[in-house]
Specification:
mainly beta; 1 helix
Length: 174
Amino acid sequence: RGNPLEYQLKIAGLRIGGKYRIGKSSWWVGASYQFFTVAASFAQVLDLPIIRRLNLGPKRTRLSGPIVSIVYDSRDTIFTPSSGLFSETTLGTSWEALGGTSTYQTLDHVTLGYLPLSETVTLGLRGDLKRGLGDPPFYVEPSIDMRGVPARRYQGKSVAQGEVEVRWQFWRRF
């Protein structure tokens, strides 16, 4: 609210996983496991009620848990598609029982659609929904992730965003 807090994250850990295509279809399923240790520190120490309530002092947290996803991808190419649909739903978790500092879930859904309006003009549509459940650390909470908006600028327990793109292919593809 006009008084941003500057922070730094030091992250160590790993995420391992993969995606599997179901036959020759456009459907994929994925699974991965994450284990990270994150040290968050703040550039300024402010003695404000909001800072005490949010418990934003120096802290070290661990994220540990499985992540699962389901994907549908019928785009004609992943680089600059002119037709098709990409849709992915991901459930990320961290569990105290697996070594995490807290138990929480994040649910993310993104859909990208591309429609050719002519041989050289493509309409692109994007919709995202994100939701944090449980007690995720502040740096994991859903945020707006859009071109032209600083990363993590707008966060909350739930985030929805949309985007429209009209692309003119005035030169052959490189």
